[in-house]
Amino acid sequence: MARTVLLPVLLLSFFLLPLASLALTQDFCVADLTCSDTPAGYPCKSSVTANDFYYHGLAGQGKINPLIKAAVTPAFVGQFPGVNGLGISAARLDIEVGGVVPLHTHPAGSELLFVTQGTVAAGFISSGSNTVYTKTLYAGDIMVFPQGLLHYQYNAGTGPAVGLVAFSSSNPGLQITDFALFANNLPSAVVEKVTFLDDAQVKKLKSVLGGSG
Prior knowledge:
By secondary structure, the chain is an alpha+beta fold. 23% of the residues lie in helices and 27% in strands.
């Protein structure tokens, strides 16, 4: 009986050992941003310095979008080549009073939000039962948003809110639901059918968000 159980374990170890050896042959792969991104990440740069593992871009407030009164400043692989292949990245979130980060998803990574200033109301929606999970976050609080699920944040306080965000991907992606629906050239008639909104509402949102059709 022991031999029967041990054999699959030995076979699994035999097949995994070459993969483990490959993983140990390279400490990192700093992205060569002159090349195209691929599903496996960017190719590796041939010449690497300490600056490739350092990024100062989150030190100050990002450029506020006047429509949503918020700024999301990314430190994804495109801005921070050193995270290529490491399965991590970051961003800074600045939300003015009355500001909001509308419903959106990150198709390739989960998100961890750490509030450093102000008050942030946040939540996400499960994909199966459409259950909503919401919390009000204060400085020092964290909340996780599982990969691919619709989620949002907005300023629920009386002063500016700031948060630092970590992702489980070097390039988590971003799709904002409102922009996906109304900032494109999908004909209004089609948008009306798939959203149950009337013509006036669809055209108003397309006008606000820069869509056509």
